[in-house]
Amino acid sequence: MKGISIDYTLPDLYQPKRWMCSKCGLIFDYLFSIEEPGWPVFDSPLDFANVSVDEKGQWHYEEPDQNERCPRCDIDIKEIPLIPVIVSAFAIKPFIKTTFIVEDRSHKIVLDSIATLLGKDIDILTVGNSENVKKFFEHLKNSNLLDNAYFIVDGDNKQRIYPNEKRFIQLDKYCIENYLMDFEICACVVQKDINEIRQIVLDQLKYLLISSNTVLSILCNLLTIESVTDASLAHIDGSKLLEKLLGRFGTSLDNYVPNYIKECENQGRLEKILPYNIVNFIKNINLGNL
Structurally, how many domains does the chain consist of? Predict the structure, then answer.
């Protein structure tokens, strides 16, 4: 947001910063996803630009003023600034039922779908990013409140944070979306040929690599469909690849994931395709051996 410094981490779990509309009192929350409640509306879409061509045939892109407005009372936030708010200390009580503290909405959709398939009742708390998950873990551990609490972060090609902590799960692959691209399962869900799916992933992979590093453009020409395997994609940001794939087939993550997980179960591969420890934790809820 223009003129306001937004910090997406929670350095202090007891005093996260919020912003309040000075007219209607609506609380804005910039800590988590823009898809979640608590963000302003805009006069024009954030990705909109005025495009024109001059007499020399050169293209010009001009972004219009994108004023933020309160979604409740419609005031212009630039004219009537938001008021900073400090949330008072809150008490974290022991979790009554199994609760997963996760990074984002993608994690939540996957966990919800697994729990629904297995007929288990869980709570899921999304906190925005891996650093926030880590801080919640440290706080709850120091407060002896880890009972029924489990923590999940993406792998992000990083070294293990807590390798000896059973309750803290760091994914082996780059992110949760990487587990949602088994080509055989995906082909059954979207009812497309496996090679068509792999070609879409390959095209997007080449685009991402070339966009990030021009030196890689030479190597990209050597990639073929045979290069697109589960192992080769494990340490690449699968969220961008999956987003492109689902867009091509006209479906959303919300619709795709439950069907994907159901197909994994139908093929008897649920614990082989998805992270074993996550599936196992959920499957054993109420069995007394978590």
Answer: 3
CA 192: distance to chain centroid? 25
pLDDT digits (tens, 9 = 90+) for 162-179: 999 999 999 999 999 999
- Claim to verify: residue 3 and residue 81 sit in the same structural domain: yes
User: What pTM was computed for the model?
Assistant: 0.70
Asked if the structure places residue 67 within a domain, the reply is yes
